[in-house]
Amino acid sequence: MNKIRRILSIDSLFFLLIAYLLIKGWVNRDNSYLTAESGIGYNIGIIGASMMLILLLYPARKHVRFMRSWGPIKYWFQIHMMLGVTGPLLILFHSNFGLGSTNSNVALISMLIVSGSGLLGRVFYTKIHDGLYGRKIELKELSELLTEIKTHFSDNEKFENALNKYESRMLKNRHLLIAFLMMPVLRIYTSIVRFNTRRKIQLVTASKEHLADINRYCSVMLRVSDFVVYEKLFSLWHLLHIPLFIMLIISGIVHVIAVHIY
To answer: What pTM, to 2 d.p., does this model score?
Structure first.
């Protein structure tokens, strides 16, 4: 039941609707239902561009002092994500899924890059937060949980040394690209460690508590390892996303001015 609820969540239904509209618009792009110069096509462009400007309210809500009391940040983030998808969708319909003049092409490509960047940022965001709109998971909390689990094996030096070796390899400081590429390798390594450690425990004791502890330990270690990588990726993404968005705003303004002057 919970799995069905996740599949039928509002987010999932929203993105399914967006995907349907994208496909529908692309298939019918040659039917010339909309034109960018007038009518509904023109108005859709204005609405889409306005949505892209409204996106600026989210970072303002986070950083401008007098706006910090304007409701929970998670709802601002939800609106930011929805506008960040709906705005580009309307712009695509405005352009009839095709290219036009040089200035419009620059604005369109900038928008697509920023929109794609936003979706990528959402992926990184979910990896370092407890739920998409929840509070950030602190590495300290996970580390404390690891320490608590390891205390169950403090009476066995062999097990503790093996776990310390595993921990040092999982948390080894690596270059970001190497650390990202190593993520699937570390998952395989964790599975091997979990299997071998469980087998050794079963030879010494049949304690179900210890078997459960080693499962928790390996699971939390993976979360810690992933957290370190995704936090760095999210920080890097944030540095790139802001100038991309500024480029989008500038190109959009130039496009609007050019259209109405020429």
So the answer is: 0.66
Q: Where are the alpha helices (DSSP H) in the chain?
A: 2-7, 10-27, 39-54, 57-63, 73-94, 102-127, 139-150, 157-170, 176-181, 183-204, 208-261
Is 25 in contact with 92 (CB distance < 8 Å)?
yes
Say whether both 70 and 192 belong to one domain: no
Domains identified in the chain, total number: 2
35 lies in which domain range?
Answer: 2-136+237-261
Q: How far is CA 50 from the centre of its chain?
A: 24
Cα 257 from Cα 216, distance rounded (Å): 59
Question: 230 to each of 28, 74, 129, 136, 167, how far by Cα in Å?
Answer: 39, 20, 10, 12, 18
Give CA–CA dist 172/179, Å, rounded.
Answer: 9
**178 and 89 belong to one structural domain:** no
Q: Which two tokens stand for residue 105?
A: 């092409």
The C-alpha atoms of residue 185 and residue 189 are separated, in whole angstroms, by 6
Structure-block tokens of residue 32: 């010339």
Q: Specify whether 53 is located in the same domain as 156.
A: no
Q: Which residues of the chain have pLDDT under 70?
A: 1-11, 31-34, 36, 99-104, 130-143, 145-146, 149-150, 152-157, 201-207, 210, 259-262
What angle (nearest 5°) sits at the alpha carbon of residue 127, between those of residues 123 and 133? 80
- The one-character DSSP state at 138 is P
Contact of 162 with 226, CB cutoff 8 Å: no
84 touches 57 (CB < 8 A): no
Q: Exposure of 108 by Cβ count < 10 A (0-12 exposed, 13-18 middle, 19+ buried)?
A: buried
Asked whether 55 and 80 are in contact (CB, 8 A), the reply is yes
